[in-house]
Amino acid sequence: EVYLVESGGGLVQPGGSLRVSCAASGFTFSSQWMTWVRQAPGKGLEWVASIKEDGSEKYYADSVRGRFTISRDNAKDSLFLQMNSLRAEDTAVYYCVRGAAGLDYWGQGTLVTVSS
Amino acid sequence: QSALTQPRSVSGSPGQSVTISCSGTSSDVGGYNYVSWYQQHPGKVPKVMIYDVSKRPSGVPDRFSGSKSGNTASLTISGLQAEDEADYYCCSYAGRYSFVFGSGTKVTVL
User: Fold this and answer.
1) Is the pLDDT of residue A30 over 70?
2) Second label for A113, Cα 20 to 30 Å away, from B55, B67, B77, B86?
3) A-interface mutation test, from B87, B90, B98, B106, most A Cβ less than 10 A away
């Protein structure tokens, strides 16, 4: 069975940095695009970033480009999102998701709160 | 990357059919056959119901169907059931390796 387990969320001050991680299991991680999707409290879903199977291509939403970096370690079946220059509007649950055009498996999410 | 437009809410009685629209542009919905739909119950993780406009993952009831005409995609739920009450989001490839979600629709079963 496919499992995606996020970690690393928490409270951070505006302007600060945070790195969230996702441990994958139950499928061949290195053969799948991976994506981060976020959801602010009480709001809708927002695509954040996607990364190709081998990590050679990375794509970002305009709202995070230049501040966030998606990466992966296929040897450890792990996905990462490095978030810098965080703003209040980045407060959300961050979901690790398998796929890109079709997001078929979702983690439970990790909450990132940006507040002073 | 503006959000795709969905009705805020739709409702129907058990057994009826409801259709949720997802309006975009020729740069997203109308330009590619990469529209997907997600169901999210309160406090739960989203679940894919439709991908590539009209394909249904295994395990998703055939009551759910997807289609597209021009710049508007649609999700139809036939034979509405109580457990279908949830929020639904569309998502489309928007070119230049980006994706955009819809604003979300709350489906209420009367």
Assistant:
1) yes
2) B86
3) B98
